[in-house]
Amino acid sequence: MQGLDHANRVIYLGTFSKVLFPALRLGYLIVPPELAEAFMAARRFVDRHVSALEQAVVADFMREGHFARHLRRMRTLYAQRRAAFVAELQQQLGDLLEIQPSEGGMHLVAWLPPGMDDQAAVRQAAAHGVDTLAISDFGMEPLQRGGLILGYAAVAEQAMCEGVRRLAAALHSLPPISKP
C-alpha cells in the first residue's frame, strides 16, 4: 500500500524480528517526509536507547546484498514447509479440517466443522502438546464457524508429521458434534 501511495498518507511499519531473528528487536518506520521530524521527536521521547551497533550491522547486511539473498532463501524454505504442512494436514485431517493458506504470514487457517468449538479444540490440542490459536479470539462478534490458526515457520518438515498426528488425536478426542 505504501508503495502505491502518491498522496503521502500511508505509514509503513515493520520489524526484522521474523525475517532475521526475534532477539534482534529492531524495526523500521517509513513515513511521509513531512511527518519524519515529528516521528523522530516522538522516538527520542519514548526511547533514547537505540542500538547504533545493531542498526549499523543490519544496514551493512542490506547494503552488501545479504538481506535480499536471505529473503529469497527464506521464501523458498517457507514455501516448502507450507506445502509439506498442507499435504500432511490434508492426509491426516482432511476429513475434519478445511485448510485455508493465508496470503501473508507464516500460518494457515484450519476451519473446523460447523458446531465444533475452537476454544475446546485449542485446549485439547495443548493437552496433546500442540500450540495453536482459536480464530474466535480474533473476532469482534461470534463467528459462524470456529477455526484454528496453525503456524509452520518454526517447525522443520520432519517434525510436522508428529505434530499433525498429535493434532489429529486431539481433535478426534473431542466430543462428537451434536446436530440440531
Please name the defining characteristics of this protein.
Aspartate Aminotransferase, domain 1, 180 residues, single chain, 5 helices, 43% helix, two-stranded antiparallel sheet, 2 domains, alpha+beta, 13% strand, four-stranded antiparallel sheet
How would you characterize the overall build of this protein?
It is a single chain. The protein has 180 residues and is of the alpha+beta class. A hairpin with a 5-residue loop joins strand 3 (98-101) and strand 4 (107-111). Strands 3-4-6-5 form a 4-stranded antiparallel sheet, with helices on one face. The protein is elongated. It contains 5 helices and 6 strands. Helices cover 43% and strands 13% of the residues.
Instruction: Provide the low-confidence segments as ranges.
Output: none
- SSE pattern: EEHHHEEHEEH
Derived structural class: alpha+beta
Count all strands and give the number.
Answer: 6
Termini separation: 45 Å
CATH class of the largest domain: Alpha Beta
Overall shape: elongated
Strand order of the largest sheet: 3-4-6-5
